[in-house]
Amino acid sequence: MSNQGVAHLSSAFGASAPRSRRRRIGDASSLGALANTGASALRLGCQLALLPILARLIGPSEYGLVALAMPVVLIANVIADGGLVQALGRLPEADRTVESSAFWVTMTVGLVLALGACAAAFPVGWAMGQPRLPWLILALSPILVMNSVTAVSNGRIIRERRFGVFAMGDVLATLAGAAAALLAATHGWGAWSLIAQQLALWVAKLLWITLRGGAQVGFVFRFAEVRDLIGFGANNIGATIADFVAKNIDNMIIGGVLGATSLGYYAMAYQVVRVPDMLISGPFWFYVFTAVSRLSHQDDRAGIRELAKSGLRLGAVALAPLFCGLALVADLVIAVVFGPKWTGAIGPLRLLAGAGFAFCLCSLMSAMLMGLGRAGLQFRLSLLMGASTVATVGAAARFGLEPAAGALACGVAAVGLYYLHQLGRTLHVSRLGLLGALAPAFIGCVALTAAVAATRQGLGDAPPALVLGAAILAGAAAYLAVVLIVARRRLAADARAFARAHADATERELAAEVEGVEATKALNPAG
Description:
The protein is mainly alpha-helical. It is 86% helix and 0% strand. It has helices at residues 3-13, 17-58, 60-77, 84-90, 96-128, 133-140, 142-149, 151-159, 163-186, 191-213, 223-258, 260-297, 301-328, 330-338, 346-371, 375-396, 401-427, 431-436, 439-459, 464-502, 505-523. Helix 5 packs antiparallel against helix 6 (133-140) and helix 9 (163-186) packs antiparallel against helix 10.
């Protein structure tokens, strides 16, 4: 660039403009991510506060009964959107005809699945030896229709990267579900309290997403407009079903082999370790998915490789202390939070913490693969995860809850390593490089473990609540200090990489041009 060109751009943007402009480029995405984090933390806090209250009011047997009913409906629920949410989200744009056609496809799928769930309710209840089970399944079936109705709006929200809508919708739905569950549980509804929670949650989600989604839906249907979307959605459905089986079939196996009470212990422990995964599968999943998808459309392979490492590093640093700490204080959590009648959940909770961390990492990698358009590969990996769950839990369940939980953790960890291998192969990047992204989290967990162990030993026979609080504070402080020392700059760069990936194309081009101007000015300071 000539000196005149440098002078022209300098006068157009001002002396301080380049730096402020680059800062604004990532502001929207960074603020959106911060809002999602805050909303997700609020939702997580509400769920964690509600869980022990319902556990004490309902008890293991009633909780186990609902744990048998939920997979029957939820396995249909993962199909109810026709697999079109991510397909619509990956489109650069979608007009009224596309969205209307997709809406009628998903609506039809939802209605058919709801009727199918109702038809299967009584045979399933008879097969499981639970006469109350069919009525719970019938009550949950409307969820299928509600999910299908929101599919097109969800796709538009993803495409427009309005992740705050998802976050706020999750908060409102969680609060509505919590209010319904508490009201029902305090009136002695037992298992029906959890059914009321799910119905209220989905009604609130339906209303919010419909009002805020802005989908253009009319009485128009053209199959040609959605043919390619359905092809992508078919692989997506397969992957989602396999993933659902991997995360829920163990409940059916344990309930069938060990009974509803044992399943109640296992399901409660499993729900605790799945809470972070719920955060990953929400706004953060779509945040990673759209970032990778945008770079994929630009064919920026180098950028995607770096983004994959950044995503794994950020995810591991955020999630590892939750699972590591939970395994270390599982006995205190059960004693303080859930009460003595849930003692049987301590062993499964310790062992399932490892499975929860592996599930979260696999979820992150699935977002990357789906963003790359590799729905077929994700489908095969999800099938592998499901087969591993069936094989490990099926073989170990007859020996008791703890062997089943330990076998599941080992199986999920093994499949997680294979996920890592396939992601590296897809991106043509070193597997060791991807694995190395987990190093800051690992080092931090070593410090966390030492701090928690020292705290527990130092407090000795102090009240469990005091020991739990002190252990959490000491472990968190040690983990945060070590991670900041080891990888503070690297993590900040990772966050900026995602902000850049979400910046609009024109903003990225302008940033590149301004950076070129600054580089030229550095070489020609007198110009």
